UniProtKB/TrEMBL annotation:
Protein name from the UniProt record: Uncharacterized protein
Organism expressing this protein natively: Mycena venus
Location of the protein in the cell: Chromosome, Centromere, Kinetochore; Nucleus
Domain of life of the source: Eukaryota
Record-linked InterPro entries: PMF1/Nnf1
A single Gene Ontology CC term: nucleus
UniProt-listed Pfam families: Nnf1 (PF03980)
Keywords: Cell cycle, Cell division, Centromere, Chromosome, Coiled coil, Kinetochore, Mitosis, Nucleus
Coiled coil, from the record: 123-150
Annotated signal sequence range: none
GO biological process annotation, one example: chromosome segregation
Length: 204
C-alpha cells in the first residue's frame, strides 16, 4: 500500500483517503516509544541498549508493514479504489449539474432499484463466503466419517475382548461351582492323587 502505484490513476478522493490512512498507520505503529519498550524490558535494555533499540525499531516496522499488507488485501478483495473512484466521479458530476442548474433524475440509478444495486454488490461476496463454508463443512464431514470408521473398529475390538473375558469368567465360575460341590472325601482323594503324581517328579 505504500507504493506509488497505489496512487497512480486514482481519483483525488482516493488519494486523500489513501494518504490519510498511511499516515494513521505510521502514527499507530510508531506511537509506542522506546521509553515504553524499556519499561517492559528493563534488563534487556540495560544489557544491550543498541540491540534493544534495533529490536524496537524492527517491531514497529513490522507492525506498519503487516498492517499495510492486510489492508491492501482488503482493498483488492473489495475493489476499494475503483469503488471510491466511482463515488468521486458521481459526486463531481452531481456538483457540476448543481452548478449548471440542470438538476434532473439521478442518472446512476435510472431503472435501477436501490435493492437491486445493493444485491448486485453483496450477493457475489455472500456466495463466495457460502462456498468457503460449504468447503469447510465438507472437510469436517470427511473427518467425521473417518473418525466414525475408526471408532467402529475400536468398538469391535472392545466387544471381542469383552466376549473373551466373559468366557474366561464363565469358566472360572464353573470351576468354582464344581469345587464347592465336591465332598471332603473327594477333595482328600484328589489331593492324594496330586501328591502321588508329583512326588516322583520331585524326587528326580
Amino acid at each position: 500500500m505504500s507504493s506509488s502505484r497505489s496512487h497512480s490513476g486514482g481519483s483525488r478522493r482516493w488519494n486523500y483517503f489513501h494518504s490519510a490512512l498511511e499516515l494513521a498507520i505510521q502514527r499507530s505503529a510508531h506511537k509506542w516509544k522506546f521509553e515504553d519498550f524499556a519499561e517492559c524490558f528493563p534488563q534487556y535494555v540495560e544489557e544491550d541498549k543498541d540491540g534493544a533499540m534495533q529490536t524496537f525499531n524492527q517491531v514497529a516496522d513490522y507492525i506498519e508493514t503487516a498492517t499495510k499488507r492486510d489492508l491492501e488485501n482488503v482493498f483488492k478483495e473489495y475493489d476499494l479504489q475503483n469503488n471510491v473512484d466511482i463515488l468521486d466521479k458521481m459526486v463531481s458530476e452531481a456538483k457540476a449539474r448543481k452548478a449548471s442548474g440542470k438538476i434532473g433524475p439521478n442518472v446512476w440509478t435510472v431503472n435501477l432499484h436501490p435493492r437491486s444495486a445493493v444485491c448486485g454488490r453483496t450477493i457475489p461476496i455472500l456466495e463466495a463466503q457460502a462456498e468457503r463454508l460449504r468447503e469447510t463443512l465438507a472437510e469436517l464431514d470427511a473427518e467425521d466419517v473417518a473418525l466414525a470408521s475408526e471408532l467402529e473398529g475400536k468398538v469391535g475390538e472392545i466387544k471381542d475382548l469383552e466376549t473373551r473375558a466373559n468366557c474366561v469368567l464363565d469358566q472360572v465360575d464353573e470351576t468354582l461351582e464344581a469345587w464347592s460341590n465336591l465332598s471332603m472325601e473327594e477333595i482328600e482323594a484328589w489331593s492324594a492323587s496330586i501328591i502321588e503324581t508329583t512326588t516322583p517328579l520331585l524326587r528326580s
